[in-house]
């Protein structure tokens, strides 16, 4: 078991090191790993000022926050007052938020020091990081491969050891999939556990701000701070924060293994790692229960209808009036709006706006959007049935390990299939964590494999304590990029 | 595009959908559908893009065809990921964003207003 975050906080509070030293190291690491493309901006001056202020407060006797001096990176779709929040898009280039997102504010209040803003697929639309309007992020384990997406930079920054903690957002797998492909841990809470206030909206019935870290224990520490009701978000559940369970135990746990998660299309290496992991979970006391989620195979089309419909509505606000660069077009209001949107949005965002507009348009609404919402209900019903027979579900997070840059970027259908194992969980609004489950070799490269643990609604604490118990018994999460050879020899 | 159901929609291209010959299930996405949808979405797509977007549309919707085969006659649409209703707070006045902060992001402003092209003739 390990907690980079708790150890850092202890060192800061005991005086073994200062928050300024930690911030300097983190910024130096970010600059040394510039080739990863993890950051859209690094806040050197602000970070050092803030770290110094935290040190001063501690010296003057102020009670330190639970994350005192912990360097953190925020995905570029979370508003932070005065900081550019461009969402990986040209249409928000230069936009400085006039307010701070609730989740971001909570991390700041707890003592985090933001190092910078991380790269992402434009408007969180993508599964590889390649849809960033600026530059693609790279996988720290294999630089010619994608880190996953859309929280590409947040995952790469944690995996490379630049920050111990980062926030991303997960709509159809955008935190769990990059966590899996980068060999770290990422947790999507039950929909409504974390406030969305100040998160740039993509698919509002799916979006959840979600933490990424090296261990489940750090995710628990982050969730304790992040979660809880917020009067500024009417979809945020009126519940207290997610409290870590004192003891994570696997004994007697009924682990459901959905047959559909091992269907055709699953990489053979990933399948083998997952079978091994499940066998090990059973040796640790869990009981395997085979279950079925018959409608899960429809999750990708259902997700891409629901999410694009919501996105087409949410992205209507980018009209060149209130923020972002304007293109005058033919000089009329309509012409200005159309020309601004044409120039500001990238190819995938336009594709999704068109798809979403189409599935909502008169004459097609019931056949596509209405139908997808009904299939969504069936997907949720499958989970409810499965959870009558088991406590949690386990399976792979991503059907393949990290693929190469450019491998799927010209093929939207192949890219959408990257979400086949994460999207059903999102549609059902359930909590799920991705944790490292081992490695596969591909073309001479060592690539991480992720295991997804999914629970019923509001079982966030159980999902995380189970992940913690898994990490107490295994060391996959301790591996670092570039250190695999040493680890294999050990 | 061929689909399992073999049903198609012929669009009149008005962009409103009101005159569409509707047949539930699938559609034959064509260039005119892309143009009319782009107009609804306020996207000024150039002719070069229409072709590739129509091809993408056809492929994407074809990959979604299994949705049409599910029996959903007994299922209500799921509108929200949680069963809890909206959580409301007391409707009390509180400070809002500073006008200057908000206007500072606008690409064009006139005094304390967002600047937009003239929309009313003769004003």
Characteristics:
heterodimer; A: 490 residues; alpha/beta; Amidase signature (AS) enzymes; 2 domains; 11-stranded mixed beta sheet; 16 helices; 14% strand; globular; disordered C terminus; B: 123 residues; mainly alpha; two-stranded antiparallel ribbon; 3 helices; disordered N terminus
Give a written overview of the molecule:
The complex is a heterodimer of chains A (490) and B (123). Chain A is an alpha/beta fold and 490 residues long. Chain A folds into two domains: 345 residues, Amidase signature (AS) enzymes (Alpha-Beta Complex), CATH 3.90.1300.10; 77 residues, no CATH class. Helices cover 39% and strands 14% of the residues of chain A. In chain A, helix 8 links the parallel strand 7 and strand 8. The longest helix of chain A is centred in the C-terminal third of the chain and has 25 residues. Chain A is globular, with a radius of gyration of 21 Å. The relative contact order of chain A is 0.14. In chain B, helix 1 packs across helix 2. Chain B contains three helices and two strands; from the N terminus they run H-H-H-E-E. In chain B, 26% of the residues lie in helices and 3% in strands. The N terminus of chain B is likely disordered. In chain B, a hairpin with a 2-residue loop joins strand 1 and strand 2. Chain B has a domain of 70 residues. A two-stranded antiparallel sheet of chain B has the order 1-2. Chain B has 123 residues and is mainly alpha-helical. Chains A and B meet through helix 9, helix 10, helix 11, helix 12 and helix 13 of A and helix 1 and helix 2 of B.
